[in-house]
Write a structure and sequence with these properties.
With 256 residues, this protein is of the alpha+beta class. It has one domain: Oxidoreductase, molybdopterin-binding domain (Sulfite Oxidase, Chain A, domain 2), CATH 3.90.420. It is built from nine helices and ten strands. It has helices spanning 8-20, 28-33, 35-40, 43-55, 85-92, 114-118, 146-153, 181-184, 243-247; strands at 100-104, 110-112, 123-131, 135-145, 161-170, 173-180, 189-195, 198-199, 209-212, 224-230. The chain has a five-stranded mixed sheet. Strands 3, 4, 7, 8 and 9 form a five-stranded antiparallel sheet that branches. Strand 5 and strand 6 (173-180) form a beta hairpin. It is globular, with a radius of gyration of 19 Å. The two termini are 27 Å apart. The model is unreliable at 1-40 (pLDDT under 50). The chain binds ligand MTE and molybdenum atom. Molybdenum atom (MO) binds at residues 77, 131-133, 217-218.
Length: 256
Amino acid sequence: MSDLILPRRRLIARAGGLALSLPLLSACDAINEAPPMRKILSLGEKMHFASQRALTDRDALAREFTRADISPVFRPNGTRLPAGKAYAAHAARGFADWRVAVTGLVARPLSLSLADIRAMPQRSQITRHDCVEGWSAIGEWTGVPLRHVLAAAGLKDGARYIVFRCADRIGDADYYESCDLVDALHPQTVLAWSLNRRLLPIANGAPLRLRIERQLGYKHAKYLTGIEAVASLDGIGAGKGGYWEDRVDYEWYAGI
Ligand SMILES: Nc1nc2c(c(=O)[nH]1)N[C@H]1C(S)=C(S)[C@@H](COP(=O)(O)O)O[C@H]1N2
Ligand SMILES: [Mo]
């Protein structure tokens, strides 16, 4: 993380977030569910904690579940199989030659294989995916937190958004998505290669897809081919930050 260049404001916000990521203090739920902690915290301390939470709300963790909660089937949605010979050839080779390019406002552009990605620090999380179309599914995701990839590439001053490029097209345009640095550096924002402790199925975005747990399903870009740090979303797609944002009234910030 030391080579991440961030605006000062952001560094302060992160310092607050770190304090709040202590296991028992990570969510209001945790306080309610943990009797020893409830006894230890005075009312004043709770109020202080609540105000800190409000200030750093976007750093808070999304709820995590247990293996007993995992949905029997994780319904695929949107593209279930990218068209074209190139993707089919990658799939036939078990994605051995798949690369994810890390480009844009970075000090060290990267071209990462899946082996490179698996050699980085990994995180597993059991979370609920909420699609705007009105269905949800709980699954266990494993992959590298995006912040480690961005630290390896070294964000340059001026980087404000991360754009996610995908291998599939819907109609006449490539699927893409984007987020700001708060979500890009969030500990649960992960480039996932595994669902429910198995290799990610093609229908769910093989070989690599984004998990961005504080936002709705359409932000979770599947079939990742590129990660690009940019100063502005102008000139990318129609400029609204994502395939659906460009076409329908889906919000760019789709907080849950
Ligand atoms: N590349 C790509 N990513 C995508 C989509 C898509 O069609 N293409 N659909 C989005 C939508 S609307 C949802 S709800 C989720 C679905 O993920 P799933 O197929 O694993 O359920 O992927 C999102 N990411
Ligand atoms: Mo969705």
